[in-house]
Specification:
394 residues; 10 strands; 13 helices; single chain
């Protein structure tokens, strides 16, 4: 890099210059910024080069850097270095990938909040309380003549319960976290000709699936992803379920049943202008949300008392109500775009479950009046499990 002008390099200032090849020939005019450690992203000295866009220019600059002795970073290496150098905890390091792969605004907000350290702060508070508990219990081990009296034992129990409640609150966000990261697998299910493919098209806002009055038109599953109020929705349109002698349709129905087993949410679509069938009314599943379609043709008395969402795919009526119902079913009283979002992932969930089990064992040991050594062992185990979340223990 050859700098324009004669002034010295200054940290965190962009410097205009030129990247040249081995013979001194120009490759590109660039802006270079130097970040000295430990105040950089990784905690180490970092140089950033901003070149012009375009595949060829970028490749030539990168090749020149490699010729000069640099090497390509491994996947996630900069963030790994930042974690190892204490620039962020493990939850923040994980949030970087969540930020990159976020599909919706709500998922982006959750990742950004985690990157800011909100999850780390809550885990840190639990860890500090556990550390304090361990210190109190181990004090009784160091001074065996001092038994844990009933009043002290009650105070310790109350603090253990506080920790357990904090863990339970974080564990309750696991389902929301999985949905925000992976999407809500939503299966559109029902008899033939009730409007399943029409509903898919309405939700997508385009003609994705073929719509026909001929029963059995949809024989294979169709999958698409949409953004519903910040919630990634993985829609699966399935073949209508009925008795059929057609081999291809039978395979489609078999696939429908497999998708039902894997679904997070089932949109059971029915023709509300026709009387309900025993199969439709008998279908009961906690994941089910019933959609009463074709209300533009009139609502049959058999569906009048049903709490399902009423809509007409043909007229486009009721889609707003359906969106509200889906979001409520998926997230309950979960986060909205204006909230600070804390949503743990599968690794955090595993650590929290272990810590909660250890805290419960410590509580039982305290209640039973067992020796402080046994209480301390359980509290230490809970402390280690919590430490794994933020990378304090491994």
């Amino acid at each position: 890099f050859r700098k324009a002008g004669g002034e010295a390099f200054r940290p965190r200032m962009q410097h205009f210059g030129r990247v040249v090849d081995a013979a001194g020939g120009p490759i590109d005019d660039v802006l270079l910024t130097f970040f000295p450690g430990p105040g950089s992203y990784t905690g180490e000295p970092v140089v950033e080069i901003g070149c012009h866009g375009g595949i060829l220019v970028t490749r030539r600059v990168l090749e020149r850097l490699l010729e000069a002795g640099a090497r390509l970073a491994e996947p996630g290496e900069f963030t790994r270095r930042a974690f190892l150098n204490g620039r962020m905890d493990l939850t923040q390091a994980e949030a970087v990938m969540d930020l990159i792969t976020a599909q919706t605004d709500l998922a982006l907000r959750a990742a950004a909040d985690q990157l800011e350290g909100r999850l780390g702060e809550r885990v840190g508070a639990i860890r500090e309380t556990l550390l304090d508990l361990v210190a109190h219990v181990e004090a009784y081990i160091d001074f065996p003549e001092e038994d844990i009296d009933p009043e002290t034992g009650a105070a310790l129990l109350a603090r253990v319960d506080t920790v357990r409640e904090a863990m339970a609150a974080l564990l309750a966000t696991a389902g929301q976290g999985r949905i925000l990261r992976e999407g809500l697998r939503t299966v559109i299910y029902g008899r033939p000709n009730v409007g399943k493919s029409s509903l898919l098209n309405c939700l997508l806002g385009q003609e994705r699936a073929i719509v026909s009055a001929i029963p059995g038109t949809t024989r294979d599953t169709i999958e698409e992803v949409i953004n519903l109020r910040g919630l990634p929705l993985r829609l699966v349109d399935t073949a209508g379920v009925r008795e059929s002698g057609d081999v291809l349709e039978q395979e489609g129905i078999a696939r429908t049943r497999r998708h039902l087993e894997q679904a997070d949410l089932i949109l059971q679509v029915v023709d509300a202008s026709q009387p309900p069938t025993p199969e439709e009314t008998a279908f009961d599943d906690p994941r089910r949300l019933r959609v009463l379609n074709k209300t533009d043709l009139g609502l049959h008395p058999g569906w009048a008392a049903d709490p399902g969402v009423r809509l007409s795919c043909r007229e486009g009526d009721g889609m707003e109500a359906l969106g509200e119902a889906i979001f409520g079913k998926a997230m309950g009283r979960g986060p909205t775009l204006g909230d600070a979002v804390v949503a743990i992932n599968a690794r955090h969930q595993q650590c929290l479950r272990r810590a909660a089990a250890d805290a419960e064992a410590a509580r039982k040991a305290l209640e039973a009046g067992l020796s402080p050594e046994l209480v301390a062992v359980e509290l230490r185990a809970a402390l280690d499990a919590i430490g794994e979340i933020v990378g304090r223990a491994d």
